[in-house]
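This week, work through this protein record:
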Amino acid sequence: MRNLIRCVLASVVLAAPIHAYSYLSVGDAAPDFTVYGLDSQPISLSDYSDKVVVLFLLETTSSRCASAAGAYEQNVYQPYRDQGVVVLGIDINPTGETLDDLASFRDAHSITFPLAMDSDGECWSAYIADDDGNVPVFYVIDTLGTIREIRLGYRSGREEYTIDAIEGIRPSLALNMGRDLNDMTTYLPGDMMSVFADVSNPAATRDVLAYIAVSVGEDLLFWPSYGPLPEGIGLMIPAGFVLDGYPIDSIVVNEAFPPGFYEWMALFVDAATGEWLSDLDSISVPVRHNSRPADDRSSLELPSAVLDYLKSNIGINEAPLGFSETEVGYFGGHELRLKVMKDLFTDITEVPRLSGEIGDFFLENARDPAAIVTYCFQMLEYEEETVTRSAPKCVPPAALQSFMFDTPADETNWNTLQPEVRQFIDAIIDAAETASPAIQAAFDIEFLAQALQVTTDGLNDIERWRLYQFAASPWYGTSDGTIEDGIHRLDLDHLSTGTSTFVSDVSGAITAFRLWLDENEIQPTDFDTIKFTAPAGRCCILGTGDQQVLDEYSIIIDLGGDDIYRGSHAVPRSFDRPVGAIIDLSGNDEYDGGSDSAALCCGLFGVASIFDLQGNDEYFSGPSGIASAWHGSALLIDYEGDDSYFADADYSYWCEGAAHAGIGLLIDLAGSDYYSCYSQGQGFGSTLGFGAILDVSGEDQYNTIGSPSD
């Protein structure tokens, strides 16, 4: 068994989304209000100033509010009510509902948390921005009255977001070593390691005991006391406490520390209950006795003897081995130098170190694709900013999706699906619509329309092959310089926000649905397909039997069977429908993009994705497929199975995790897999692209058939 990460570099920090359904943002002060309980007595937000408040804005006639009520009662209120948390449910539809309706709602869902009626509309006018009053809406408000989380809508499992926000409202502790570890300076025998604690969070509601631990061999040494975990000894952090730079303890490096990385951890115990809380912070500290690299990938380094030999032979004993700032400036015409690339050029020892760091991060976050997406975009940070536009935002749909079914039979078949299956499909399509505004904003539409000699509306009718020729022209030697200017105009902030939002929402929906599948199964269907149009584009639902798909759709969701996808699939269809996706739940599937360029999972001016959950699958592609990005993002995640990836026809460049502008990620989580490409693939990035393969496990084979000159 082995795992593989291959990537070539070419980020942005995501801005917080702006919520179109709320006047408020995370970090704002929560407005006070007065509502009326089931006993007609007034209730104000300020009545709960000593508690963390989960504000649950609802209507009793909403099916989503009904589903959320039971989940929040069982999974939020009951577990956390004794820890200073209250759920406050407020009916924001007083004109259409009565206190009796609210009492019936309480009884039907066995609710014990307080419920109230917004009789005067005071809460609605302060917290809801749109006229439709879409519900449910959740706010998490800490004891200082600060909003910590805002979330619209409910699907099974979404209360986990609320729980995460609640868990964050406790004394937080950050560790530092009193020295800068970014330069990877390691500790040598005789050096003293000292750890300092910076404790803060005045909104915390409970006292905790903090233990600081460092791993030595198979043992954990705990502070403030050495040895096994002591009883009743720890750094007491009262609720609302603020402490800066408290020295926890120190230890001298000796033979007990073999070369490697040692992780200092902050561990927490609830002072009242003795319950262990999750680790909130850690620091990896490198220790070495000689120049050989430690086991941790991020400690990869050139052996000092080799490095000293190289430097002495070229006469740079003191300076880093690489190009100087002045010499880097000689690379004229390369105006999009990335910060990370400049670092690699100026110090060659950064190459193995950074490679190891990327490898560690990918493996640690293999099942969190949104985190990997964000990390990859952060590698694409310019040395100097090239474009400034409005803050990125992703706006959830204002209401349930409205589908236009192709035929009455399609609508009938839709209604035969289990509610949980329909909910899952709805979540996928919601994700595409939510992410689309940020993705669209990544492109300078007026510039592209002028370059392609069409109107801005006409951009949506441009054939894919023409867009591809335009994007790829510099690499085929046919560019007139226009697309190079277009790379300057690509807004990575928006592309990153849209991509990570989409991937996060889809992977979250998949996780929740797989939990449902652990105890349930999809009922066999009597139909082959359900076809409809949604705001996110043309959609197709495949039944549980074996299907062959030839028509083009924005989104395909397959419920089972051994399926064949031929032609162009999982690609953006237009600038106003910038997300292309296939979610295949099971079966041994064949994805065949043929010999056309950018036909299979290619992020060409948009986001392309395939999520295949089960089966031994085969993928075939011509140039720029199987997770390839041209001014966009492409993500292929295969969760299980022994899979094969073929992009080895003549001149099938830039496949299997490749990117020229954007990110191309091929993630295979399990199975013994086979990869074959022509050239410039399998983790390839150029210009403004980050391309990577992450294969987590299995006995895998990698093959390339292009000539050495390629």
Remarks:
- The chain has a mean pLDDT of 79.
- The chain is about 25% helix and 25% strand.
